[in-house]
Write a structure and sequence with these properties.
The complex is a heterotrimer of chains A (128), B (297) and C (133). Chain A has 128 residues and is an alpha/beta fold. A five-stranded mixed β-sheet of chain A has the order 1-2-3-4-5. In chain A, helix 1 packs parallel to helix 2. Chain C has one domain: 2-Layer Sandwich (Heat Shock Protein 90). In chain C, helix 1 runs antiparallel to helix 2. Chain C is globular, with a radius of gyration of 14 Å. Classes of the chains: A alpha/beta (128), B alpha/beta (297), C alpha+beta (133). Chains in contact: A-B, A-C, B-C. Chains B and C meet through loops of B and loops of C.
Chain lengths: 128, 297, 133
């Protein structure tokens, strides 16, 4: 099973990227996310990249695309857990991540999403 | 251009007279030096001479870059390295090698009857020793350069501390010029600290940065961007009036919140992180109970 | 041996992953710092992707240098259409919507040595290297 799991946390969706992404996987992820945002009327998308040792322009474009589409669906996109060496490299590469908010971890990321009740946990996900 | 006759002559020279050459050389090696014992100098010399003899017997005798001279080069590299670290000068190190000429030439003179052969041998050996001497100096220089580089890095690390001002608020007092090398260190220190302390606001204080030109501004902006990617916002403080003017004149876009003083920046940071400072009645002087750590929220 | 060279093909997206992994292995071997490793691998990823997307596929020669100084050098070769406008290709092409430049300027900033040879119809050869400090 190659798909990346999408979890629901409160009114947000959480995606944890752990594998080396290739084109098909990236396209699949964007499609799945878009559908789920609509399905759950999610207000935000959290993308956890703490497992990524590299973020190149391919991943960067994917993140920016997700942010653009989410924005159209009225959801914030927050990238969390970026490693220091990745941040330094991205800055040097000159790769901006337009429309993407960033936070140190998922907890902080949730707080950045508009209209969030910070007490919601993953367990509440099914009370929809 | 050394002929095989010359090579044979030199090989013979070493085979027959290595001990004698060494004895002669020892007289020229500095006897008393506080930095190195006579014994050590002599043992190094003996090894070098022996390796040289072996090398001459093997390959092209005027080309010291070849594999045949590998052992000689290794010995010289190690020798130059220790000399550099012991505080010798490049000249002293080279002289050690060049001083080999006299005993060698003496020996050639004493054992060669053919005038042309003598000239050829002396010339060939002279070339070899010159090359080896230069090599020794280069290795010496390399060690010095490595030492300087290490010290430079240490200074860089030491001069970019990250200070935690409060829960979630850190400060970086930047002292000195901000070049690309230092910027890398600054970014690394700052980002590591953000990870470790979970800081949300970083105050970059540039009071100690003498000039801010376009490049320095770029470095500052890079640092700010990197921190932002890790979820921390930056405030720049300590912009002196002249710096402010220069920045405007240069047309540099510093898209960061900036405050004149670190104090102002801290006040803003506290406000942004949801804290208020209240004045309560208290003694202005420190009391003994202040030595006990307080809980900070 | 002063250097070892391995050649990897670049024909699929998975190949790009393999190039990254190989470069990481060599970078660690040579002793590059974590940040330098990351920069090199990211640059390699960019250039491998370029070879695939613009160059119709190619090869990466990964050289590990351990004598005199330590470092990793990578040559990306493709027999694609070549780059017509090199200065333009060197600009940052990271604007959303595809971008115009090849983003080579960014890759250049991530490495110590950068060399580009390309002309229309002649394919492209890009050499990058990072050295241990």
């Amino acid at each position: 099973m190659d798909n990346i799991a999408i979890l629901k946390i409160g009114n947000a969706l959480l995606v944890t990227i752990q594998v080396d992404m290739h084109d098909r996987l990236a396209t699949q992820l964007q499609e799945d996310l878009t559908n789920r945002i609509v399905q759950h009327r999610a207000r935000g998308v959290l993308i956890d990249i703490s497992a990524l040792e590299i973020v190149d322009s391919f991943i960067g474009r994917m993140l920016a695309n997700i942010a653009s589409v989410s924005r159209l669906l009225d959801a914030d996109t927050v990238v969390v857990g970026m490693r220091p060496e990745v941040a330094i490299t991205l800055v040097e590469l000159g790769l901006g991540l337009p429309g993407v908010k960033t936070a140190l971890n998922a907890e902080r990321g949730l707080a950045l999403i508009g209209g969030v009740d910070g007490d919601e946990t993953a367990e509440d996900a099914d009370d929809d | 251009m050394a002929t095989s006759a010359t090579q044979a002559a030199l090989v013979r020279l070493f085979n027959d007279g290595e001990a004698a050459i060494f004895a002669d050389w020892v007289k020229h090696l500095s006897a008393g030096d506080s930095r190195i014992s006579a014994q050590e100098a002599q043992s190094q010399g003996k090894e070098l001479l022996h390796a040289l003899g072996k090398a001459l017997g093997q390959g092209s005798i005027t080309e010291t870059h070849g594999g045949e001279f590998g052992e000689v080069r290794d010995l010289l590299a190690a020798f130059s390295r220790t000399r550099a670290m012991q505080g010798f000068s490049p000249s002293e190190t080279a002289t050690f090698v060049f001083s080999l000429k006299q005993p060698l030439f003496e020996r050639i003179r004493a054992t060669t009857s053919d005038a042309k052969q003598m000239a050829d041998s002396i010339w060939a050996l002279s070339q070899v020793i010159d090359q080896l001497g230069l090599f020794a100096v280069e290795m010496f220089q390399k060690t010095r350069d490595e030492l300087i580089e290490r010290q430079r890095q240490e200074i860089e690390e030491l001069s970019t501390p990250v200070v935690k001002l409060w829960e979630g608020i850190v400060a970086l007092p930047l002292i000195g010029t901000l070049d690309s090398g230092r910027t890398q260190v600054v970014m690394q220190n700052l980002l590591e600290t953000i990870v470790q302390t979970g800081a949300e606001i970083a105050i970059l204080d540039i009071t100690g940065v003498p000039t801010v030109d376009t490049l320095v501004a770029q470095h500052l902006l890079k640092t700010v961007s990197a921190a932002r990617l890790m979820g921390a916002d930056c405030i720049i403080s300590g912009i002196r009036p002249q710096i402010a003017q220069t920045i405007v004149q240069l047309g540099v876009e510093l898209n960061v919140i900036s405050k004149a003083t670190l104090a102002d920046a801290l006040a803003l940071a506290l406000k942004r992180t949801g804290r208020a400072v209240t004045k309560v009645k208290g003694n202005a002087r420190l009391q003994t109970e202040d030595a006990v750590p307080e809980k900070r929220g | 041996m002063p250097t070892t060279t391995e050649t990897l093909p670049i024909a699929t997206g998975d190949d790009i992953v393999r190039v990254r992994q190989k470069v990481r292995t060599r970078a660690v071997e040579v002793g590059l710092s974590l940040v330098d490793q990351t920069k090199l691998i990211t640059a390699a990823s960019e250039l491998a992707r370029n070879a695939l997307d613009y160059g119709k596929g190619g090869h990466a020669d990964i050289e590990t240098i351990t004598e005199v100084r330590r470092g990793v050098r990578i040559v990306f070769r493709d027999k694609g259409p070549g780059i017509a406008d090199i200065p333009q290709a060197m600009t940052d092409g990271f604007t959303s919507g595809g971008g115009l430049g090849h983003g080579l300027g960014g890759a250049k900033r991530l490495v110590d040595d950068f060399d580009l040879k390309s002309s229309p119809g002649q394919g492209t050869t890009i050499t990058i290297a990072r050295w241990k400090r």
